[in-house]
């Protein structure tokens, strides 16, 4: 009950823009998760590329980028779906598609003692904005999804 009250309090404290971004993040996550489950990856990739295609780019204030990243992470944690790094990174990339120098990165963990583990994250100008990891873990970038 306390968690529910916390979420209601947080929702009420959001601005109109924050609520809109949160709802867009939730819808994007559900759409992306559904598409990843039902479509062959090649088809999903073409559809996602088409959806993210934009003729205009524009800088967005860091505050809005931070709000979008927060909304995607929070919605992913609240929705009753398993939304790991790839759907979160894809939703962030989609919602911030007009931001220049934004890339979705996919890498594998460099640790011979562990089994194969992949991770997806989003970078802006080389800095991780979504999907950060602890310093003790090292990922080798294998694919940049522009």
From TrEMBL:
Name the record gives this protein: Lasso peptide biosynthesis B2 protein
Transmembrane regions listed in the UniProt entry: 21-42
Domain of life, per lineage: Bacteria
Ranges for domain Microcin J25-processing protein McjB C-terminal: 36-142
Alphabetic keyword roster: Membrane, Transmembrane, Transmembrane helix
InterPro entries the record matches: McjB-like (IPR053521), McjB_C (IPR032708)
């Amino acid at each position: 009950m306390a968690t529910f009250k916390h979420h209601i309090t947080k929702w009420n404290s959001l601005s109109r823009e924050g609520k809109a971004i949160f709802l867009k993040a939730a819808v994007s996550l559900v759409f992306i998760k559904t598409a990843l489950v039902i479509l062959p990856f090649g088809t999903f990739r073409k559809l996602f590329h088409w959806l993210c295609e934009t003729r205009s780019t524009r800088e967005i204030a860091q505050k809005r980028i931070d709000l979008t990243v927060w909304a995607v992470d929070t919605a992913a944690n609240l929705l009753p779906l398993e939304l790991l790094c790839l759907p979160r990174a894809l939703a962030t990339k989609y919602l911030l598609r007009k931001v220049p120098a934004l890339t979705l990165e996919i890498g594998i963990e460099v640790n011979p003692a562990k089994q194969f583990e992949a991770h997806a994250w989003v970078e802006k100008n080389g800095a991780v904005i979504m999907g950060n990891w602890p310093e003790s873990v090292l990922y080798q970038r294998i694919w940049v999804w522009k």
